[in-house]
Amino acid sequence: MTDKLTVSVLGTGIMGAAMARNLARAGHSVRAWNRTRAKAEPLAADGAFVADSPAEAVRGADVVLTMLYDGPAALDVMREAAPALRSGAVWVQSTTAGVEGIADLAAFAREYGLVFYDAPVLGTRQPAEAGRLTVLAAGPVAGRETVTPVFDAVGARTVWTGEDGGAGTATRLKLVANSWVLAVTNAAGEVLALSKALDVDPQRFFEVIDGGPLDMGYLRAKTGLVLDDRLSPAQFAVTTAAKDARLIVEAGERYGVRLDVAAASAERFERAAAQGHAREDMAAAYFASFDELGTAEE
After folding, report:
1. What would the mean pLDDT of 143-156 be, rounded to a whole number?
2. Is the CB of residue 277 less than 8 Å from the CB of residue 104?
3. N-terminal to C-terminal alpha carbon distance within the chain
4. In 3D, which of 56, 40, 41, 42 has the Cα closest to residue 6?
5. For 228-269, what is each residue's pLDDT tens digit?
6. Model confidence at 79: pLDDT above 60
């Protein structure tokens, strides 16, 4: 098979739009759809065809790539696309769907004769735009010659976790990785909040950890977004982080593990969203340490 494919991208938010652009730049024919069409329309300037419906988007596609809010959203959109799906087409499912969600999506793939790849990605807006995501992938060896050009267009590397996309091994690894990312993000916010409450210059904290084992680039990146008031546009939105945190907690509960930090993370993201920071970068969880007027809680 030629490495130039017709790829349908369903969901063109922060990540999906960047992935669609990189697919087009790699020479693939891209058919894009988004529930809010205005979010997909800018892709026309990159050579993508903007469809009015999921069915129109997937018609004739070699690969269908879904990057939607969660598992139920992905399933609903694929049901809308079902009349135009071609049996034998490849479905690259990149939504962070959760352990239960991925099983439902795999069942749909079997029903419609799709070759299913569980392929969530690690990375935020900047690596997505640069085509430098890490793709976590599980799916059959037969067919990887089709998905490899897609993964190469959107990512810097692909980590294969298994040969059965329905087993959810890639999704499970994504949840593990995200549990760390979300915990660090919230810890970074609390460092700044406590510094403010105790009248400590946060730069003194960075001086103390500078170059040592407690120092890390991600900590500095997330605190920098807060300190420099660069929370918009989001690299990874508060609402999406809250959803992922809940999926992590649910996965732990399903397998008998209590994840107190993940549960607290979900609550902080939800509180920040309720305060009006839903569309800002998840570093805005910083504000969950304060009341709605921005003063420290007592």
Report:
1. 97
2. no
3. 64
4. 56
5. 999 999 999 999 999 999 999 999 999 999 999 999 999 999
6. yes
The rounded distance, in Å, linking the Cα atoms of 272 and 18 is 26
Specify the 3-state DSSP secondary structure of 100. Answer: helix
Q: How many residues does the chain have?
A: 298
Q: Give me the torsion for CA of 67, 69, 75, 79, rounded to 10°.
A: -80
Q: Alpha helices, DSSP H only, in 112-258?
A: 125-129, 144-154, 169-197, 202-209, 217-227, 238-254
By CB neighbour count within 10 A (0-12 exposed, 13-18 middle, 19+ buried), where does 38 fall? exposed
**d(C-alpha 203, C-alpha 186), whole Å:** 18
Tokens matching residue 247:
């999926």
Q: 238 and 285 in contact (C-beta within 8 Å)?
A: yes
pLDDT for 61 equals 97
With b meaning 16 or more CB within 10 Å and e meaning fewer, what string describes 91-105? bbbbbbbbbebbebb
Nearest Cα residue to 13 out of 282, 233, 242: 233
CA diameter of the chain: 64
Q: Dig out the tokens for 71 from the structure.
A: 């598992």
Q: Residue 186 corresponds to which tokens in the numbers above?
A: 């919230």
What SS3 class is residue 110?
A: helix
Global pTM reads 0.93
Helices 238-254 and 98-111 sit at what angle, rounded to 10 degrees?
90
Cis amide prior to 233 (ω within 30 degrees) = yes
Please compute, for residue 56, the number of CA atoms within 13 A of its CA located in the half-sphere on the CB side. Answer: 9
Alpha carbon distance 121, 155 (integer Å): 8
SS3 at position 181: helix
Q: Supply 272's token pair.
A: 């920040």
Q: Answer yes or no: are the C-beta atoms of 268 and 290 closer than 8 Å.
A: no
C-beta of residue 297 within 8 angstroms of C-beta of residue 289: yes
